[in-house]
Amino acid sequence: MSQAWNPLHYDHKLGFVSEYGKDVVSLLNPRPDEKILDLGCGTGDLSFEISKSGAAVVGIDFSEAMIVLARQKYADLQFWVANGETFRTPERFDAIFSNAALHWMTHPELVIRSVGLALKRGGRFVAELGGKGVADTVINALEMALKERGVSVAGKNPWYFPSIGEYSTLLDAGGFRTTYAVHFDRPTPMEDGDDGLNHWLNGFAGSYLQGLDPSAKLEVMDRVAQLTRPKLYHNGQWVIDYKRLRFVAIRE
Ligand code: BEZ
Question: How far apart are CA 128 and CA 247, in angstroms?
Fold first, then answer.
C-alpha cells in the first residue's frame, strides 16, 4: 500500500527528519566540483544543504507533491519525480545521498541496482534509514489497536527496516564495498507536546489508517497513545524509539 505524503505537514510537524539529516550531509562531505543525487529528497531541505558546498545537486522523489514544494522552495536546484527502485539517469554522479527514504523502498536490491548504475566507479553511496527495530513500540501498538477492532493489518506495513548484515550483504551483491556502517538508537522527540504522537501517525502511518472513518481513526490513535504512553511519553513530550542505520558504500 503506498504512502500519501502531505508536504506541509512534513515540513511543519516533522521537521526533525531534515534537521537530523544534516549529520548525514556531514558524513557525505560534499565538494564543490561534485555532482550529487539526493535520493528521496522530500521537500528539498537537504538537497539545499548539500548545495551550500558548491556541489551540483539533483533531488528525486516518488511523491509529486513533495517535488512541487521542493521546486517552489529551492528554485535554483533541479528536482524530478522518480521511483527510487527503477530510476535511471542520463549522467553518472560522484555521490548518491539519501536520508530517511530508503526504508520506504521495499525492493532494496532494485534500489541498489539503480544507485549502482547512476554512480561513477569509485563513487559513494551515503545514506541513513530506519534500522531494524525502529519505532517498534508505536508500530506494535498500532497493529494491536487495529486488530482489537477486527481490522486486518495484512499488507499494511509499508516499510523495510534492515540490519547492517542484511543491507551490507545486498550492497556487496550489488557491486559495492561497505566502508562504514552503524546501527544506533536515536530516541526522537516530537513537536507540540501531547499532539506529537498524532503528528507522527498522521505523517507516516497513512497506510494503516486510510480507510478508517474519522471517528474510528481518532479512536485508534487514542488507543495507540494509551498503549505507548508508559514507554514513550516523558515530561510532556512524545519521544519515539528510533533506530537508525547509517552507511557509506563505494561502487567498485
Ligand atoms: C524513520 O524515518 O526511521 C521512520 C519513518 C517511518 C516509520 C518508522 C521510521
Answer: 7
At residue 50, the 3 state secondary structure works out as: helix
Which amino acid, 163? Answer: S
The residue whose CA has the least distance to atom 3 of ligand 1 is: 130
**Atom 4 in ligand 1: residue holding the nearest Cα:** 130
Distance in angstroms (rounded) separating the CA atoms of residues 47 and 19: 12
The C-alpha R_g of the chain, in whole angstroms, comes to 18
Cα 82 to Cα 14: distance, rounded to the nearest angstrom: 22
Check: CB of residue 46 under 8 Å from CB of residue 21.
yes
135 lines ligand 1 (CB under 6 A): yes
The CATH architecture annotation of domain 7-135+159-190+240-251 reads 3-Layer(aba) Sandwich (3.40)
Which tens digit of pLDDT belongs to each residue from 176-226?
999 999 999 999 999 999 999 999 999 999 999 999 999 999 999 999 999
Domain residue ranges in the chain: 7-135+159-190+240-251
pTM of the model: 0.97
Burial class from Cβ neighbours inside 10 Å (0-12, 13-18, 19+) for residue 206 reads middle
Determine the Cα–Cα distance for residues 224 and 149; give it in Å rounded to an integer.
12
